[in-house]
């Protein structure tokens, strides 16, 4: 029988930032579901589909809004996600505080990885933007910073950035995150924060997609060097993040079940 879901919207967790909470019965753990959008667009409604699925699987799920660029430059979004984690831990909701994970797509995958590195919680990252410094260095002189002229408010998440590499647009997203200050690139790159206390990670990426797959592989190597288990799933083709949800969600859920059980 399908787990009936209750959704509580617009809970304030920090200043004027709000989150939505998806709950069923007898939560077996909790997940912070972090929406994507290149750090510059999107909100918590963007992940209503994934949050509903995760709640049906038995998880208490929160989907927080976080500050976006150009005002919310690094590390604003990261600070907000960590604040949502603190709110969740301190809340009155009933679940095992030792069973909390972060799950994000694209820029949300980047923020999920940051939470796992800094707080040691398990992570599922679909097309997380990981090697910011390396990507900018490798594409210097090969692409300028150009924003894609699309109305992202009317395009479903699973249809965005599905056509493969777009280095100019990804460079634009990263430059917006660091406010155009290249001196912040190294600090904004999660690879610099891997340690033996990092959380276990499930990293999915398409082979020829918008976000280069080598970021996930570099993170896996860094985690291996630190003695932290991880899994990388490489999906054929150019699909990005939630575009390959049907191919990644079963293995992602199994990853969490194996850690929490």
From TrEMBL:
Q: Name one GO molecular function term.
A: hydrolase activity
Instruction: List residues of the BD-FAE-like domain.
Output: 19-204
> What UniProt keywords apply to this chain's record, in alphabetical order?
Hydrolase
**What is the name attached to this protein's record?**
Alpha/beta hydrolase
The species is Mucilaginibacter angelicae
